[in-house]
Amino acid sequence: MYEPGNQQEAYDMVYNGFEFSEQIGEPVLVRIVTRLAHSRAGVERKPQKEMNPLSFSEDPRQFILLPGNARKRYRRLLERQEEFVRASEESPYNRYIDGPDKKLGVVACGIGYNYLMENYPEGCPHPVLKIGQYPLPRKQLLRLAEECEALLILEDGQPFVEKQLKGYLGLGLTVHGRMDGTLSPDGELTPDTVACALGITCESLFTVPELVEMRPLPCATVADTAMSTPYSPRYSARNIPTIKYSATSAATPWEPTPLSMPSIPVWIWVPPSLWPRELPMAASSLRWQ
Questions:
Q1: Which one-letter DSSP state was computed for residue 180?
Q2: Neighbours of 241 (CB within 10 A)
Q3: pLDDT tens readout for residues 85-124
Q4: Are strands 277-281 and 284-288 parallel, antiparallel or unpaired?
Q5: What Rg value do the Cα atoms of the chain yield, rounded?
Q6: In whole angstroms, how far apart are CA 253 and each of 248, 249, 250, 256?
Q7: Three-class SS of residue 63?
Q8: What is the pTM of this model?
Q9: In the prediction, which pLDDT does 171 show?
Q10: Whole-number Å distance between alpha carbons of 95 and 228
């Protein structure tokens, strides 16, 4: 699996991924995180490759994963793990960058490397292992573990690498990351969260304007399930009084019950076939448009 750290790497990994997949005979995945997917930049393009000639697999059973075939394919996959690890160790997307301060070693996965370098524009003083291809490169990881007193894992999303390293190294080394609270266990990885994990005082240059701050909690709720209506922003924006709903029976669909509900126009999207339509509710009505 590839995990790009910037737009150029994303382009290169997809470009080279097809050839690498043909070489190893296995599918190759590319993991893109939210920040990278929502960004854009100029990239250096490469020559377009010719399409491979049409061919058939030497073993057509590989595409029919009945239990008998799946067991054999899985055993074969396990036997090839060392081959995949060697490919990661030799990959240009996995780089060991030495540093003078050995008190801490940093494993920066994907876009985490970009965030790290934003906090150290003149170069990181700690040894860094940049990860862009999986499985994890054992040789570089062992070198980092042997040279450093502790490790900090920078990865977006779930602590996948951190969990692996806690049992992978088996050296009793301290590993910091999301699991021990050095980084927040939820939310995206950002340059500010990386700075806090490194002990760098960082004042954010960007603040949320008052105009776009989070609105108050929605006032329209489903009483028995405590779930907000998907149209809560519309209700909150118009400051509509509380509207409560309850179920008439567990065996019947949810039906709105009038509970001190005034007649108030509410804009809700519905299929055009229902335009216009009124849902009678005792003395008041909720107009659908």
A1: T
A2: 11
A3: 999 999 999 999 999 999 999 999 999 999 999 999 999 9
A4: antiparallel
A5: 27
A6: 8, 8, 8, 10
A7: helix
A8: 0.64
A9: 62
A10: 47
